């Protein structure tokens, strides 16, 4: 896999462990000559990830919604910039451009992106998966909820058809190779 989309937080006030893990992933992307496809923001995990990836030789593709541009929140690290009208357009472009999606810890925007990928996969628009990078068990509650959805028959197929979980950095990189 050469183009890897990463969904993650744009917050600058989250625990340092998440910043460290984003930096580690960015370094790996660069060292392995991968493209980072991400939301293009200059804040939070997004900027930490992009900076580390760039410093280690990765190419950076930002998919930038108009509101980010209007608010001056676009990273200066982008090699390629796609301009999107809104967040829906952004998600579609990211899925189109990347071969796999990694979900680092994030908020409502990250959840929106994850569910967009899984839902569109579930009805056959693509066969790409999300990898939940479960740093310090961040995704445990969501993963348990997905199991409950499936157990209660709110899923037509096993939801694990649409995602994988990496609890360690080694597990994540094995899934990305």
TrEMBL record:
It comes from Bacteroides mediterraneensis. It holds the Pfam family Lysine_decarbox. SUPFAM superfamilies: MCP/YpsA-like (SSF102405). It catalyses: AMP + H2O = D-ribose 5-phosphate + adenine. InterPro entries: LOG (IPR005269), LOG_fam (IPR031100). Belongs to the LOG family. It comes from the Bacteria. The keyword Hydrolase applies. NCBIfam families: Rossman fold protein, TIGR00730 family. Its EC number is 3.2.2.n1. Gene3D superfamilies: 3.40.50.450. This is Cytokinin riboside 5'-monophosphate phosphoribohydrolase. Keywords: Cytokinin biosynthesis, Hydrolase.
